[in-house]
Amino acid sequence: EGHAERATHVVVTGRDPLLINLTPSILRQAKWLASSFSSFMAEPDSEEATDCGSDWEGLGGALWAGSKYRAINLCDFPVELELVSQHHSGLTTQVQPTGALWEPLDEWLLPRFATALRVRLPGGIASAPISLERTGAVDIPGSGALAELLAPSPRHRVLLVATRLRVHNQTDLTLVLRFHDSVQREVLLVDVPDAVTCPAA
Question: DSSP 3-state assignment of 183?
Fold first, then answer.
């Protein structure tokens, strides 16, 4: 940012997984916190939208203004969310397949001071708790899907429910996918409903 002589350059090479923790100076931390707090307190610039946008950059912009917590279900089945709170227990809500739309969760979570969620199939076994304060992912028992909490911006948290196999097309080209039977090598006819696709998935 105009101070090249103060920049820190880190080059890391290796063959095995490596965890790197870079701790900035207290001044940089303070600057980042001030910027994040200012962004959080600022009023949204436009009306709230319920479409997840054309790319992930939209998640931190005006398209996602308004609600802090929201859910996207890219599975072809509904899921049940159970609230984890010191003040309430046993409260649940159901999220139907959303496709390119999202479900706001603020009115359900915030008044009850929720700290985490459990996710399950309706009537099924609940997952491990997934914290609302940090990103993470949990298995949804019996579904083959994951519930993942994303933080596209300091102001927003997105609960993404999707299968383990996902296709991210970051090009401007339309892809044609073919799935083959593992034994007979035949091409499988796969019907992909709109509810399991999203331009920002």
Answer: coil
Q: Rounded distance, CA 73 to CA 163, Å?
A: 10
pTM of the model: 0.62
Taking the C-alpha atoms of residue 88 and residue 115, their distance in angstroms, rounded to an integer, is 11
Amino acid identity of residue 15, one-letter, is R
* Euclidean distance between CA atoms 153 and 163, whole angstroms: 23
Nearest to 160 by CA among 170, 169, 149: 149
- What count of residues does the chain have? 201
Residue pair 75/59 in contact by the 8 Å Cβ criterion: no
pLDDT tens readout for residues 81-124? 999 988 888 889 999 998 878 889 988 888 888 899 999 999 99
Query: H helices within the chain, ranges in order?
Result: 26-41, 106-109
Please tell me the distance from the alpha carbon of residue 125 to that of residue 137, in angstroms, as a whole number: 16
| Range list of H helices, 7-102 | 26-41
Establish how many alpha carbons lie within 13 A of residue 56's alpha carbon, considering only the half-sphere containing its beta carbon. Answer: 10
Q: Can you tell me the distance from the alpha carbon of 40 to that of 100, in angstroms, rounded to the nearest whole number? A: 25
Of the pLDDT bands very low, low, confident and very high (cuts 50, 70, 90), residue 139 is very high
* Structure tokens, 137: 């992912």
Task: List the one residue out of 84, 90, 198, 97 whose CA is nearest residue 145.
Answer: 97
